[in-house]
Design goal:
Helix content is 20%, strand content 20%. It is an alpha+beta fold. 25% of the residues are buried.
């Protein structure tokens, strides 16, 4: 099973991942993306969210 991880040191908080996979990612109070449901990739395309991230902050483990 794929588990998404956001590298906080790279994230710029653009929100693309949260727009593509709102069940998995959310923008936190710090303005950066966070994984709220690491098991939610079944309900969206986490690969697309990873590939869309402009700074490469998302990895799938």
């Amino acid at each position: 099973m794929v588990k998404p991880v956001v590298d906080q040191s790279l994230c710029i908080g653009c929100g693309a991942c949260a727009a593509l996979c709102p069940d998995v990612f959310e923008i936190g109070p710090d303005g950066k993306s966070h994984v709220k449901n690491p098991d939610g990739c079944d309900s969206c395309n986490c690969e697309q969210a990873r590939d869309t991230c402009p700074v490469g902050a998302i990895t799938l483990e």
